Amino acid sequence: MGFVGIDRTEKVLYEVFPYDAGPDYPSEGLFRIVENGKIGYADLEHGAIRIKPEYPAASPFQNGYAQVCPDCETLQDGEHSSWVNGKWGLIGRDGELVLAPQFEEIKQIEPDGRVLVVKDGAEQWVEIK
Predict the structure, then answer these.
(1) Cα dihedral sign for 46, 51, 53, 55?
(2) What is the pLDDT of residue 99?
(3) 62-66, long-range: CB < 8 A, 24+ apart
(4) Edge-to-edge, what's the strand order for the sheet holding 38-43?
(5) What span, in angstroms and rounded, lies between the C-alpha atoms of 88 and 26?
(6) How far apart are CA 29 and CA 9, in angstroms?
(7) What is the distance between the alpha carbons of residues 1 and 18, in angstroms, rounded to a whole number?
(8) For a Cys-Cys bond, which of 41, 50, 87, 107 suits 101, CB 3.0-4.6 Å?
(9) What pLDDT does 1 receive?
(10) pLDDT < 50 stretches in the chain
(11) CA distance 91 to 33
């Protein structure tokens, strides 16, 4: 086990997602956690789980949203890994899907709710409703 979150009695609560030879960095008050190979999010202030681990691939939050891929697989290449073979969508800070997983890539999330995605090999802007 790598980096973990513990409570005051030193009980292990969850494993923290490893990133760049250290624990995941907080983004917008949340950091990624791992349970049974699935990624979720805990809050920085209290360490409480805010979004249950259910995604094999998930990015840090950006402008209120996080990229998630329910079907991705991890491809290991030495000490590096990447996520492959799945479609990406977005969740909000409450964990609800706001864009269904249908994109090969999500390139940019703007503060105004516009998202630059790649679908069927072409870049396009979509709007979060």
Answers:
(1) negative
(2) 97
(3) 62/27, 62/28, 62/109, 63/109, 63/110, 63/111, 64/28, 64/92, 64/93, 65/90, 65/91, 65/92, 65/93, 65/98, 65/109, 65/115, 65/128, 66/30, 66/41, 66/90, 66/91
(4) 4-6, 12-16, 30-35, 38-43, 49-55
(5) 21
(6) 24
(7) 10
(8) 87
(9) 57
(10) none
(11) 16
Q: Give the per-residue pLDDT at 53.
A: 97
Q: Which CATH architecture has domain 4-103?
A: Beta Barrel (2.40)
Contact, 20 vs 2, CB < 8 A? Answer: no
User: Could you tell me the pTM of the whole model?
Assistant: 0.89
DSSP label of 62: B
Question: First and final CA of the chain: distance in angstroms?
Answer: 39
| 101-120: burial string, b at 16+ Cβ within 10 Å, e else | bebeebeebeeeeebebeee
Count of helices and strands (H, E) across the chain: 0, 16
Which percentage of the chain shows pLDDT scores above 90? 68
